[in-house]
Input
Amino acid sequence: MVSHTARAQSTAKLALASIEGYYIGEGSYDRRNVAEAPERFLNDKMREPVDFVVLIENTSSGDIGIYRQWNSWGYYSIHFVVEGPDGRQTVIEKGMRSWTKNHPDCFRLPPGMTHAVPICFTSQEWKGVEALSAKGSKLKAVFQQEPLDEKLRLSIWRPDIQIFTNKVDSAFVVWETLTRRKAN
Output
């Protein structure tokens, strides 16, 4: 796989960063659902640790659009490549899921700003994580968003945002230096 940068008017940089002591969410309920069934919310708390974050930096001179992770366009926009000590590469990606609500919701990332996406490989959404079990495994992130067809582009809440659709890769990082969780 060859890493490449995007066109000058829409460029981004991708990096991996370690993080300690943080947790993903307190459950999948919005405020209204919490108010209606607080005991269900408290029983559902997963408090999954964040292994690391993917940093998406807008290196262009204009705003770029980043899909939010709650919809299918953002949910599948990040995957990982693991390189084992033997040089063999394996992909870690999110598995298929069903969507009860789904539309291409995005936000504007201004020039020079960085957006952090927390990653937790202990969650059940990631497929291929077992590739990280070998000591000395290296990991890189790949970020790519699919372009919308014209009909969908006009229906999103923010049709004025230019969606970033180029592919960017981070550098490889040794898994054991990125997270507290260690390989076998």
